[in-house]
């Protein structure tokens, strides 16, 4: 046990030294670094549970720190490890279905509406099987450089020394931390850089099931205790595992549009406070914020050099969550992507490094439960909205790619390429998502297998697609 913690700690320190060497981009204040990863060990929780055996085995296998990633020069090419630590009904419908309780629609209700022993055993099985070392090997073999790992606050084992608020995560199920440590270890061994993405905050930052809690009354923006606990969570991450990850993403998709008079200011303050807190602990991690659905231009001049350094912007693009977007033809989807590029490129050039941190080749909302467990699709009119204008059936659009037509697969390749181009016009891209139980239109793994995603991500069949 002890040696596991020790070798992970060594990783942490090597990782930090590696990161310090990479302070050579523009946008630097100084390379003082200051923040050698705290001497705090990785946490008692790292030495319990089945994950430790794996961590131990892999930890002793290799301790080679990665060379610093050349942000701004080398494009980030990556995949999200969606549905692993933050489950979503559409990514793993079987896990939700198997509860035999229609009220279990997210991780919050997963913990709330069944006994905790059941929740824990189902989740531990999922954490140890959904993504394994062979996935990291396959991701690296596909020429990708980064994994973005969505993570919930409920998985971060704060103690009372780490927060002035409550340390309770109820009704969420804790216990994923050692599995994350194992994952960070696999990433290092396979040469993949990690973006750790805080995807779920206390109170929910957007009310989406992927924040952990599907609710029409998300509390995070209105609740200072939720916000300060979120900052404490980021500090814990920077302190304990900062040396094992490259980029700390402070919060995924906060829904600042829900109240356009007060939320943008609250979010701005949170980004500032989170950035400052992380920098106080550890000067070496890159820090990422998101546009809060306000458009990147809302953040012009914010956290730019020299008042801040090593900050990135995460922009997400989907074109399927409204009827007008679904109505676009294949050509119009591609054209829309082409026409989005200039703005993003200008923002990145004039402000901070920018990535397209979520996007996919899905062109319908047909994946089962994509809009929430028990909710239908706008595409086929099974989503309950007015006016209900179905565009067709869902047959052949999602599920197994063996049902996809060749013209659809040709489009998937074109749509993949044009979005890769959008990402590589700025500092890179992260596809959503590596795998899904039964939605191949969203799966990088299935795209490789089915041939619409090339094994070499620099390969282009349509280099002039926007011309
Ligand atoms: C849910 O489980 C039932 C049987 O237990 C099965 O008939 C049904 O197809 C499953 N649905 C999904 C979405 O997995
Ligand atoms: C708790 O509050 C004290 C006093 O305001 C402050 O100094 C300290 O930094 C806080 N600690 C955390 C972990 O938020
Ligand atoms: C977040 O805010 C909610 C709503 O006010 C509150 O009930 C909950 O305890 C807070 N959660 C945490 C972890 O602080
Ligand atoms: C492509 O997008 C531009 C800008 O939005 C628009 O003016 C043009 O009509 C579009 N062309 C097609 C073929 O959709």
UniProtKB/TrEMBL annotation:
Enzyme Commission designation: 3.2.1.58
Catalytic class of the enzyme: hydrolase
First and last residue of the signal peptide: 1-18
Coarse class of the protein's main subcellular location: secreted
Keyword line: Cell wall biogenesis/degradation, Glycosidase, Hydrolase, Secreted, Signal
Record-level GO BP terms: cell wall organization; glucan catabolic process
Family: Belongs to the glycosyl hydrolase 5 (cellulase A) family.
SUPFAM superfamilies per the UniProt record, alphabetical: (Trans)glycosidases
Domain of life: Eukaryota
GO molecular function: glucan exo-1,3-beta-glucosidase activity
Reaction(s) catalysed (UniProt annotation): Successive hydrolysis of beta-D-glucose units from the non-reducing ends of (1->3)-beta-D-glucans, releasing alpha-glucose
Ranges for domain Glycoside hydrolase family: 121-362
One cellular-component annotation, GO: cell surface
Name listed for the protein in its UniProt record: glucan 1,3-beta-glucosidase
One Pfam family recorded for the sequence: Cellulase
Compartments reported by the entry: Secreted
């Amino acid at each position: 046990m002890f040696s596991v913690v020790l070798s992970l700690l060594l990783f942490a320190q090597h990782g930090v030294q590696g990161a310090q060497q990479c302070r050579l981009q523009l946008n630097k204040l100084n390379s003082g670094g200051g923040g050698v990863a705290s001497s705090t060990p990785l946490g008692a929780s790292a030495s319990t549970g089945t994950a430790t055996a794996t961590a131990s085995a892999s930890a002793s296998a290799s301790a080679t720190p990665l060379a610093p990633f050349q942000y701004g020069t080398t494009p980030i090419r990556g995949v999200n490890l969606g549905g692993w630590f933050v489950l979503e009904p559409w990514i793993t419908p079987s896990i939700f279905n198997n509860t035999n309780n229609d009220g279990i629609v997210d991780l919050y209700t997963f913990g709330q509406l069944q006994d905790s022993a059941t929740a824990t055993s189902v989740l531990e099985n999922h954490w140890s099987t959904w993504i394994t070392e062979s996935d990291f090997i396959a991701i690296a073999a596909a020429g990708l450089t980064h994994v973005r790992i969505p993570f919930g606050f409920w998985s971060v084992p704060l103690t009372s020394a780490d927060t002035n608020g409550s340390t309770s995560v109820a009704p969420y199920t804790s216990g994923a931390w050692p599995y994350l440590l194992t994952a960070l270890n696999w990433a290092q061994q396979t040469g993949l850089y990690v973006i750790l993405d805080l995807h779920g905050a206390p109170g929910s930052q957007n009310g989406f099931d992927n924040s952990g809690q599907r609710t029409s009354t998300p509390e995070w923006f209105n609740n200072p205790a939720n916000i300060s606990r979120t900052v404490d969570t980021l500090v814990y991450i920077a302190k304990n595992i900062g040396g094992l990850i490259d980029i700390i993403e402070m919060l995924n998709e906060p829904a600042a549009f829900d109240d356009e008079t007060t939320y943008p200011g609250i979010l701005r303050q949170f980004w500032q406070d989170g950035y400052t807190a992380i920098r106080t602990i550890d000067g070496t991690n890159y820090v990422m914020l998101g546009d809060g659905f306000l458009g990147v231009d809302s953040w012009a001049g914010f956290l730019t050099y020299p008042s801040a350094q090593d900050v990135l912007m995460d922009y997400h693009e989907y074109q399927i969550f409204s009827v007008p977007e679904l109505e676009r033809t294949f050509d119009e989807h591609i054209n829309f992507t082409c026409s989005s590029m200039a703005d993003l490129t200008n923002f990145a050039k004039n402000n901070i490094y920018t990535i397209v941190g979520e996007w996919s080749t899905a062109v319908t909302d047909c994946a089962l439960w994509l809009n929430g467990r028990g909710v239908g699709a706008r595409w086929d009119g099974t989503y309950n909205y007015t006016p209900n204008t179905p565009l067709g059936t869902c047959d052949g659009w999602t599920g197994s790619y063996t049902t996809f037509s060749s013209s659809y697969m040709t489009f998937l390749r074109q749509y993949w390429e044009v979005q890769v181009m959008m990402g590589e016009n700025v500092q890179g891209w992260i596809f959503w998502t590596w795998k899904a139980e039964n939605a191949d239109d969203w799966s990088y793994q299935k795209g490789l297998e089915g041939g619409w995603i090339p094994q070499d991500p620099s390969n282009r069949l349509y280099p002039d697609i926007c011309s």
